[in-house]
Amino acid sequence: MKVCWFDAFGSAQDVLQRGDWPMPEPGQGEVLVQLRASGVNPSDVKKRAGAFPGLLEAGPVIPHSDGAGVIMAVGEGVSPARVGERVFCYQAQYNRQLGTAAEYVALDSARAPELPEGTSFEVGACIGIPIMTAHRCVFADGPVTGQLILVTGGAGRVGHYAIQWAHRAGARVIATASNEEDARACRQAGAEAVTNHREPMWGKAVLDLTGGQKIDRVIDVEFGANLPALLHCVRIGATIATFSSTVVPEPALPFRTMMFMDLTVRMVIVYAMPEEAKAQAVADTQAALTKGSLRHRIAEKLPFEQMVEAHKIIEEGSVRGCVVVTI
After folding, report:
1. pLDDT tens string 159-172
2. CA-CA distance, 90 to 70, in Å (whole number)?
3. Can you give the three-state secondary structure of the chain, one letter per residue?
4. Is residue 24 located within the same domain as residue 119?
5. Phi and psi at residue 87, to the nearest 5°
6. Main-chain phi, psi angles of 5, to 5 degrees
7. Are 88 and 127 in contact (CB under 8 A)?
8. For the chain, what percent of residues have pLDDT higher than 90?
9. Are 310 and 215 members of one domain?
10. CATH of the domain at 245
């Protein structure tokens, strides 16, 4: 089978390789998926660049955790009825070497849920990290009906879905975006108002949009950089659910201020979500996809031969939406 892999850390053009590998076989409790699409996420390019120094100790890595395709075979303990099932894959390259940047992947059957009919494989490759992270950020701290939620970077991979989950659940949503095209995407997803997070004092601008009402919960894409602005617009007892802090990777917290506001900070990563939270995210996603009620932003769709370019696009951070490689 054709695969893309790396056996050293570095830039995409220097370390990503393409070639043939032996076909994997499904083990106990596993399924063999013929992949049609692979999702590229920031965590994938960070791993390739060396963010996890011990990653290569067990050998070369086929990157990417997310993907979608068709089950071709099953291992012992898995119903043969699953053969032929359209599925999406998540956590394919978590605590293991073999991800979805390949024609085939063998992985735990539970990590390959059914992909509803009518949902493209490209959309399926966006579920694992973008959609499930958004779901966890929105619902980890209880129902959001009637709450006022702020989604920063609302046009991004996770933010765009977070707006939709919150809006569908009965919350009022305010979003931030840096240009009018992204602001329009936020409104189409369900945000009632949008402010520009590149403007000074944008945290106070949020209160102008809400008529002075402070935010109950925040879904945040840049915790360290955004925290000072967020403290201007969240209420006492608010929750900040964050899934990234790239610009300021080691934030300094104003502890006294946050303590006297009784704030909760929740840090979210799909891999560490409780299994029941993963199951709920999968079930809700399948239901929404069956109804066709989720909007998707696939910013780039590239062929397998352009894997290096796909990684570069993610690293540059210039696109809003998912980057998918077709196989």
Report:
1. 999 999 999 999 99
2. 14
3. CEEEEECCCCCHHHHCEEEECCCCCCCCCEEEEEEEEEEECHHHHHHHHCCCCCHHHHCCEECCCEEEEEEEEECCCCCHHHCCCEEEECCCCCCCCECCCECEEEEEHHHCCECCCCCCHHHHCCHHHHHHHHHHHHHCCCCCCCCEEEECCCCCHHHHHHHHHHHHCCCEEEEECCCHHHHHHHHHHCCCEEECCCCCCHHHHHHHHHCCCCEEEEEECCHHHHHHHHHHHEEEEEEEEECCCCCCCCCCCCHHHHHHCCCEEEECCHHHCCHHHHHHHHHHHHHHHHHCCCCCCEEEEEEHHHHHHHHHHHHHCCCCCEEEEEC
4. yes
5. -140, 160
6. -150, 170
7. yes
8. 98
9. no
10. 3.40.50.720
Instruction: Look at residues 256, 271, 286 and tell me which one is the last residue of a structural domain.
Output: 271
Question: Is-above-0.90 flag for pTM?
Answer: yes
User: Residue 178 belongs to what domain range?
Assistant: 134-271
The single-letter code of the amino acid at 214 is: K
What b/e string do you get for 241-264 counting C-beta neighbours within 10 Å, with b at 16 or more?
A: bbbbbeeeeebeeeeeebeeeebe
**pLDDT for residue 320:** 81
